[in-house]
Amino acid sequence: VALFAVAVRAQTVQVDGNKVVEVLTRLANLSDHENPAVTRILFTPNDMLARNFVKDLMREHHMTIREDAMGNIFGRWEGSDASAGSVLTGSHCDAIPLAGMYDGTLGVIGAIEAVAALQRAGFKPSRPIEVLFFTSEEPTRFGLSCSGSRAMAGALTAEALESKLDSQGRHFLQVANEVGYGAASTSDMLAATRLKEGQVDYFVELHIEQGPLLEREGLDIGVVTAIAAPAALEVTFHGDGGHAGGQLMPDRNDAGLAGAELALAVERHVLASGSVDTVGTTGTFEIAPGAINSVPRDARLAIDIRDIDGPRRDRVVAAVLASAKEIAERRKVRYTSRVINQDPPASSHEDIVSAVAASAEALGLSTKRMVSRAYHDSLFMARVAPMGMIFIPCKNGWSHRPDEFSKPQDIANGVSVLALTMARLSGG
Ligand code: GLV
Ligand code: MN
Ligand code: MN
Ligand code: MN
């Protein structure tokens, strides 16, 4: 009961949404593409600038900074009970190619602003409050999502990480060492990143919904109850190629056409689940050599499959892998297939769900309990601590595109709910 005593009066928490937007806009300019598009890939110069930007903000708000071997950045606001596990909040600042300025960043910049609002309100935390900048939630560089949180939760093996290379054929560890993170070996790096027992008492993440429901229903805050199960596959087809004029159709084994058939098979298997909750996307499809007058010799597809029902998602994954084999045999091409990740769904913890709902209610905001169809670092943090998420509406549900947008008022609402939630969870 003490835990959920109202530690700070809702009205004393003041958040200026326009100011948060102004900070998010400055961060958005640290990008490989021009505003409004944001592209910020792990350990590139703009990612490193974003890290410094966030560390400066943390320092401005009197947080003590610690960075782990994988580059996860923690800003700590000490509590009166320094030996207690922390209330941890955070998200990511990496952005997929041509993304928008709110995905992830809101949960970092907004969290720092939530801490600032609590400090202005005179709140004194009991459990320490920590803001976290996760390394590489997005899979862009190494094909692996949530690298930082997987490692923190002990859900990443050295073999798995070492099997992933970037487009220049380099390993995570190599690149991490070059920018001042890393360790002597991948296993040392992972061991050093793993959270210790009792280090975190609660984890909560603020994020834009990335779907249309809150806006459509005119609601202020999404209280996330679960995160859908994501899977990622990579399939390659290899044929013999040839001259687009000279090689007659019966003599071809066109890897590009095998890939095209597989992309359509993904859609077919997903639709066959009969549920709108099953989704599948062939998000990259590369053919080589990539010349108009050359029969494609290689095709490489990256396939994303998700569902709120884990076993049903697994059946679609199996069907897609079976199709890859069948298509390769029929079209006489060689093939490889690889499951990059196939993660179970995660449930929010009832303590955080109630803390978020009560905080929203104290602010007079309307709420909806909902499932997150996007994945987040919260998926892995749920393995080490009670987890919860706060969603705010975003325009038309758009995300992973430059016109991603949330209103300053919704941002202020989300940050205020996060502040009150952390105050409740911290006690004080
Ligand atoms: C995260 O960006 C996701 O793809 O859900
Ligand atoms: Mn994203
Ligand atoms: Mn995100
Ligand atoms: Mn994401």
TrEMBL record:
GO terms for biological process: purine nucleobase metabolic process. GO terms for molecular function: hydrolase activity, acting on carbon-nitrogen (but not peptide) bonds, in linear amidines; metal ion binding. The keyword Signal applies. Keywords: Hydrolase, Manganese, Metal-binding, Purine metabolism, Signal. Its cofactor is Mn(2+). InterPro entries: Amidase_Cbmase, Bact_exopeptidase_dim_dom, Peptidase_M20. SUPFAM superfamilies: Bacterial exopeptidase dimerisation domain (SSF55031), Zn-dependent exopeptidases (SSF53187). It holds the Pfam family Peptidase_M20. The keyword Repeat does not apply. PANTHER family: ALLANTOATE DEIMINASE-RELATED. Homodimer. This is Uncharacterized protein.
